[in-house]
Amino acid sequence: MTEQNQPATQAITSGRGASGSSLAPALWASTVWESESLVDARRRATGTRAAEFYSRYGNPTVRSFEEAVATLEGAEDAIAFGSGMGAVASVVLSMCSAGDHIVAQRQLYAGTLAFLQGPCARFGIETTFVDGHVPGAFAEAVRPGKTMLVLAETPSNPRLDLVDLDELGALRGPVTVVDSTLATPLGQRPLDHGVHLVLHSATKGIAGHNDATLGVVAGEKDYIDAIWSYSVLHGATPSPYDALNGLRGIRTLSVRTTHQADSALFIADSLLDHPAVTAVHYPGLPSHPQSDLAKRQMRHGGTLVAIELAGGQPAAERFLTSVQLLHRATSLGGPETLVCHPATTTHASLTPDEAAHVGVTAGMLRISIGLEEPTDVLRDILRALG
Ligand SMILES: *Cc1c(COP(=O)(O)O)cnc(C)c1O
Q: Domain range for residue 315?
């Protein structure tokens, strides 16, 4: 029944397993459940993902959130974490050991990049970085028998370059993982392209209200169970309160992302010919260098727009001090439109060479389009540009 429904409907019908006849999900705050007998206690303590044992192992509210994400991603199963980075760290450390090799794109979330370059390198896990939007780049860097993981992010931050999901799904050997945070589960479905695992910072668009810190990974049950076996010890466990907010966010995800993507396209298009703007990056624009790929693998162009200002950093600073409606903040996917200057915030730790590779320029601003009336957002942007 649910399988035949459209994604927007699945966002409403999914994840109701632990709620009984209640329409709103039940909040299971308990950290511990009682056992009837020694046999029962043993079953709970030794089983994979025991539902009612101890909340680091599993929690019914969290489970409902996981089931909803699995449904939307077309996955067998999903597992939630206390943050997007909790998801990234658990996937990498459950799949890789000292001496193993990872291929990852350079255009990664700064925290993921720092995790690969710092702790992973220290543990003897080596990463080769490639340009994710260049055809064949991942395949070329794979070392047969040595590369355990291929890690991609699309659309990527902040320039909104895309990775070809079909190309990634065709790789044989390593486990392929896509961080799909910027698209949300309603914007694209990496698993449909043959990718093994899809990952989200649900802190962003999924929870969608800047009030939950949450991560999630979806894919085949065998992979998810293997990740659980590691992560139950790693302990990046999600709070049931955050899972509740994640599930509430999923209920409105379709209307929110539809509004945000329409608004983003309107704003991106309106800025194309502005004399103070030298570049507008938005996958939904016909002028985006990968516009055909965007049409093939994305349901809409996403909720983020990046622009580059002719006046460089001084112009970006002037813009940030002039905005009235837009908020100066770095996150994304929430109700408020946010603007950040990647060169001095999210991407401040990059070397000039790395910044050039990922396309971060001194005059670049990343705008996360919120739920305000698009004309009001545009008016504030035009005022700040003028
Ligand atoms: C925010 C973000 C993360 C990290 O998620 P947290 O919830 O902040 O830990 C990972 N990937 C992408 C693309 C993100 O935007």
A: 253-385
316 near 364, Cβ under 8 Å? yes
Task: Give the total number of structural domains in the chain.
Answer: 2
- Strand stretches in 10-94, DSSP E: 77-81
CB 141 within 8 A of CB 213: no
- Specify whether 12 is located in the same domain as 140: yes
Dist. CA 140 → ligand 1 center (Å):
27
- Amino acid (1-letter code) at residue 108: L
Within a domain: residue 1?
no
Burial of 111 (0-12, 13-18, 19+ CB in 10 A): middle
Q: What is the pLDDT of residues 219-234, one digit of tens each?
A: 999 999 999 999 999 9
Q: What is the pTM of this model?
A: 0.97
Give the model confidence (pLDDT) of 42-67 as tens digits. Answer: 988 898 998 889 999 999 999 999 99
Could you tell me if the CB of 302 is within 6 A of ligand 1?
no
User: Same domain, yes or no, for 246 and 261?
Assistant: no
CATH number for the domain spanning 197: value is: 3.40.640.10
Same domain, 259 and 237: no
Atom number of ligand 1 nearest to Cα 332: 15
Residue 2 lies in a domain: no
Q: What share of the chain is helix, strand, coil (3-state, %, to 5)?
A: 40, 15, 45
Longest pairwise C-alpha distance within the chain: 74
Q: Is the CB of 312 under 6 A from ligand 1?
A: no
The residue type found at 207 is: A
pLDDT tops 80 at residue 1: no
For 150, the 3-state DSSP assignment is strand
Q: In 3D, which of 233, 170, 169 has the Cα closest to residue 197?
A: 169
| Of 57, 109, 223, 282, catalytic | 109
Last residue of a domain, one of 187, 217, 251: 251
By the 10 Å C-beta count (0-12 exposed, 13-18 middle, 19+ buried), 324 is classed as exposed
Active-site hit among 204, 248, 256, 366 = 204
Tell me, in angstroms, the distance from the centre of ligand 1 to residue 201's CA. Answer: 5
Q: How many residues does the chain have?
A: 386
